[in-house]
Design brief:
This protein is an alpha/beta fold. It has three domains: about 190 residues, Rossmann fold (3-Layer(aba) Sandwich); about 170 residues, Rossmann fold, CATH 3.40.50.300; about 70 residues, no CATH class. A six-stranded mixed sheet has the order 6-9-10-3-11-12. A six-stranded mixed sheet has the order 18-21-22-15-23-24, with helices on both faces. A hairpin with a 3-residue loop joins strand 7 and strand 8. The two termini are about 40 Å apart.
């Protein structure tokens, strides 16, 4: 690239919080018409670096240039005005506004300079979504959308701002393979228009599909930059984690015969219909399907978050009723929800409080919590899952995504479950944390328990599960041991 192609440059960016160095050497060079992958594990400093680029945080030192001029943004609004937009992993829709209103929030079309012109906004939103091939109705309120659809709306909103620099932080974390392919088509359109894209994803296969260049951060500092065509997956992993990782095939255990859970004709109107499946001791069963296939809705019903309209739930040979998460816990069923921020964690509470939340009855006497026992349980789980914390009383919002996810797993284990329902358990976490979670699930199943795992990643399903059940449009369309499935066949069933 020539110097005139350089859109954004940052070097020597440093930031500390309370005396703790979070970033000591943030560097990147982004050229027009390219996708630049920003790689690194949880805690590598990527989020701090992006927050500084977007004006959310002020750096302690370092320099930033945009279009050849040195700059520093005092707010996200000033960054956006200069031509830098971001799609964040943490979605922030206004739930009681429509899709169109969310897309044009702060940029509304108005009549006579005062009244919002809903008709014009709906028409523009429909044209934008159709151009991007995003299947979302602009008239629908955001609260009625799935997490994946909300992600598509956030992507459309950022693209419509027509920025010269677009930062995408885990843009596919809540969408499936089909929607990812649609997004990649949109990214190629942006590249051809000269937009520079900083792309953050823990899904390494995506980086090799869409990125032209890469930069790796580790432990808060710059490690290396280069062209994607000049590096392979193993070398990139080595740079990210600081050493090689032995590939694990987590679905190595032979399932036993005992059936722990079975559903027959399980249905909920408008969401899923006539589901028949079983979970056996020692087994990890994968649920695969495209966005809107009904997998998460089915899992929520099993856990008692919503109620089925008909069908039977059998555990240990006896029919049971689960009408609330409390009922599920009594039957030793735990669940890792899809969105750890919105429905999994209490972000303002401590790591200790988040871990102990579902086991308070066993830690209490006469309504008083035994803090000594609570601290002991939390500490044991922090050590068990290698959760990186300064102290167990640290607010969970301060942890990296991978460590937050480990807190959820730690909480689930405090209830001594036999069945663990995991909805996208590795969404938005780094390769090292992902492998730790896969290893935990394999160990959990090998102890005679069972796992029901929802994942939108084909390779994760095939590498981690014994058996896969495929959903399409709310129905169960296929079931097979993973040894008899190829990625192509799985996608064929799902679509």
């Amino acid at each position: 690239m020539s110097g005139s192609d350089l859109l954004l440059k940052a070097e020597g960016i440093q930031k500390s919080y309370g005396g703790v160095l979070a970033l000591h050497d943030g560097c990147i060079e982004l050229c027009a018409g390219t996708v630049h992958a920003l790689c690194g594990g949880n805690g590598a400093g990527k989020s701090t670096f992006l927050n500084i680029l977007m004006g959310l945080e002020a750096p302690d030192s370092g320099r930033i240039w945009l279009n050849g001029s040195e700059t520093r943004f005092a707010s996200p609004a000033s960054a956006l005005a200069a031509g830098i937009a971001i799609i964040t992993q943490e979605l922030s829709p206004v739930p009681d506004m429509t899709v169109a209103e969310n897309i044009f929030l702060g940029r509304e079309s108005r009549r006579a300079g005062w009244f919002v012109n809903q008709t014009v906004m709906r028409r523009k939103a429909a044209e934008l979504l159709e151009r991007l091939n995003f299947a979302v109705d602009p008239r629908v309120k955001m609260r009625r959308l799935s997490l994946g659809q909300i992600q598509l709306v956030e992507i459309a909103k950022a693209i419509d701002q027509r920025s010269s620099v677009l930062i995408m932080d885990e843009p596919t974390s809540a969408i499936g393979d089909k929607e990812t392919a649609v997004l990649f088509d949109a990214i190629r359109q942006l590249k051809s228009a000269g937009v520079g894209i900083i792309y953050v994803s823990h899904r390494l296969s995506e980086l090799f599909s869409i990125a032209d260049e890469y930069t790796v951060f580790r432990d808060g500092g710059f490690v290396r930059t280069g062209l994607m065509k000049d590096i392979d997956r193993d070398e990139l992993i080595r740079l990210i984690v600081g050493g090689s990782l032995i590939d694990q095939q987590c679905a190595a255990t032979e399932p036993e015969k005992a059936t722990l859970l079975e559903v027959q004709g399980y249905s909920r109107a408008g969401e899923f219909e006539d589901i028949n499946l079983s979970l056996k001791s020692g087994e990890i069963v994968g649920l695969y399907g495209l966005m809107g296939a009904g997998r998460s809705e089915f899992a929520s019903s099993l856990y008692g978050i919503s109620r089925r309209n008909r069908g039977r739930l059998v555990m240990d040979g006896a029919e049971v009723e689960i009408n609330s998460p409390g009922d599920a816990l009594k039957f030793r069923i735990a669940m890792i929800t899809e969105d750890r921020k919105a429905s999994g964690l209490f972000l303002s509470q401590s790591v200790r409080k988040n871990i102990s939340l579902t086991s308070l009855s066993s830690l209490s006497r006469r309504s008083f919590i035994n803090e000594r026992k609570e601290k002991a349980v939390a500490q044991r789980m922090i050590e068990r899952f290698h959760i990186k914390v300064r102290t167990r009383d640290q607010p969970v919002r301060q942890l990296s995504g991978g460590n937050q996810q480990k807190v959820l797993f730690a909480r689930s284990l405090t209830t001594s479950p036999r069945i663990l329902i995991c909805d996208e358990p590795t969404r938005g976490i780094d390769e090292g944390a992902k492998r730790e979670i896969h290893a935990f699930l394999a160990e959990f199943a090998a102890q005679g328990n069972a796992v029901l795992m929802i994942s939108s990643e084909v390779q994760e399903i095939l590498a981690s599960c014994n058996r896969v059940v495929v959903f399409r449009h709310g129905r169960q369309v296929a079931e097979s041991p993973v040894t008899r499935i190829t990625p192509e066949l799985l996608l064929h069933w799902a679509s």
